[in-house]
Amino acid sequence: MQKQDIDIITNVILNNEYKLHENEEENKKNTINKSTQEKGKHKKKKKKSIKRKLLIVVEILITLIILGIIFIVLFFKTPLFQKYKEIWVETAMSTMNHQYLATWFLSDEEIKEILDSLKVENKEDSNLNEITIVVPIEEKKKEITVEKITGKNYVGHVMIIPDASKVKLVDTRKDYSGTQLSETVKKHNAIAGINAGGFTDDGGVGKGNLLCKATIINKKLLYGYKNTKYSLIGLDSDKKLVLGKYTYQEAMNIGIESAVEFGPYLIVNGKNQITNANSGGIHPRTAIGQRKDGTFIFVVIDGRRPGYSIGTNLLELQNIFNRYDAYNAANLDGGSSSTMCYNGKVINRTSTPIGERYLPNAFIVEK
Questions:
Q1: What gap in Å lies between CA 348 and CA 285, rounded to an integer?
Q2: Cα–Cα distance, 125 to 172 (Å, whole number)
Q3: Does residue 279 surpass a pLDDT of 60?
Q4: Which of 350, 361, 324, 311 is nearest to 152 (CA)?
Q5: Which residues, listed in sequence order, are joined to residue 256 by a DSSP beta bridge?
Q6: For the chain, which end, N or C, has fewer CB atoms within 10 Å of the first or last residue's CB respectively?
Q7: Which residues contact 299 (CB under 8 A, 6 or more apart)?
Q8: What is the pLDDT of residue 294?
């Protein structure tokens, strides 16, 4: 083979190799470009997807806000949900710290109209002559019994005290605070007790030692005006439960030894006082009642604990006393104060995580 032919063949081979390398470089560049383009497209899709999701979230929020506004208008400004509106307003306004749940949506006039329509008017005083205290003979003395009860949306306890002579209303205030019920029961060597009257509780941080309603303990007026009539719940010298509107002197004249101002009354002389299921709203409750033979009935209903017990209204509270044959019965301070103690232990679930509150007074059962 001539040298010229060899050179030609060599050039062809070299040229092909060059082109081969050139093709590989171009392929690499094309692959990189495609990958970059695909990444760019993916980023754009991802951005669009995020924007689309955010847009959906915003649309849902706007829809919920609009629906919420429509519901609020229908609930508070129309008669469509009147029954539930009444319960809402009565429940909110009968608390110290949650009245804004009503005042945010309704005028003072609208709130007053609802409250007035649900107001319980107690026009009758208990007739003490109808109660005959039966003092159990030592051999036939019945023990205190406690029953756990349940109803629609509530759990509670009913305590039956056959010996009326053992029930007493005591002052539990100290200089700087009230006293927890379990401590009061222990201090008086009692077997049981429930909370009684209310106290000043501005901002929900009351110490339990500042009275805000008329209170008489051991015939001494601890709070109130002597010439003003108050709706009293008290005990006379025979341990009869007294319900009625009296001045201090009138209370002394009929033999009242200790009493607190509270209410409303649930049953007076065997007559039911509550007719509207919305009266009083839904709350934890404490109440006291008495049968014609003097047997006392203590009731505490737990509340404000979703999934366990919400609380109850005054009508159902009245029904409970009817089931236990009460002749007279009255509502006491409730809410986070509602507490029942028995054998040295609090047997109900108080509505606050901190447990027992400090109270100004209590009904106890001596041993």
A1: 11
A2: 27
A3: yes
A4: 311
A5: 236
A6: N
A7: 156, 157, 158, 159, 285, 286, 287, 288, 289, 317, 320, 321
A8: 97
- The Cα 53–Cα 91 span in angstroms is 40
Q: Are 343 and 103 in contact (CB under 8 A)?
A: no
End-to-end CA distance of the chain: 134
Provide the token pair at 77: 């400004």
Cα distance between residue 323 and residue 220, in whole Å = 35
The CA R_g of the chain, rounded to the nearest whole Å, is: 37
pTM: 0.82
Q: Whose structure tokens read 């392929």?
A: 27
Residue 97 has what pLDDT?
75
* CB-CB contact of 314 with 120 (8 Å): yes
Where residue 117 falls (left for φ over 0; alpha for ψ -120 to 50; beta otherwise) is alpha
Q: What is the 3-state secondary structure (H, E, C) of 132-182?
A: CCCCCCHHHCCCCEEEEEEECCEEEEEEEECCHHHEEEEECCCCCCCECHH
- Residue 65, CA distances (Å) to 52, 68, 102, 182 in order: 20, 5, 19, 47
- Determine the pLDDT at residue 77: 85
Contacts of 148 (CB under 8 A, 6+ apart): 155, 156, 157
Contact between 298 and 340 under an 8 Å Cβ cutoff? The reply is yes
Give Cα separations from 144 to 75, 191, 199, 298 (angstroms).
46, 9, 29, 11
Alpha-carbon distance values, 237 to 149, 161, 164, 165, 365 (Å): 32, 17, 11, 9, 16
Q: Which of 312, 268, 275 is nearest to 118 (CA)?
A: 275
Yes or no: say if 234 and 260 are a contact pair by the CB < 8 Å rule: yes
Alpha helices in the chain (DSSP H): 3-77, 82-93, 100-103, 108-118, 181-187, 248-253, 314-323
Cβ neighbors of 243 (< 8 A, separation 6 or more) are 122, 125, 126, 232, 233, 265, 268, 328, 330
Tokens of 203: 């901002």
d(CA 259, CA 220): 10
Position 253 pLDDT exceeds 50 = yes
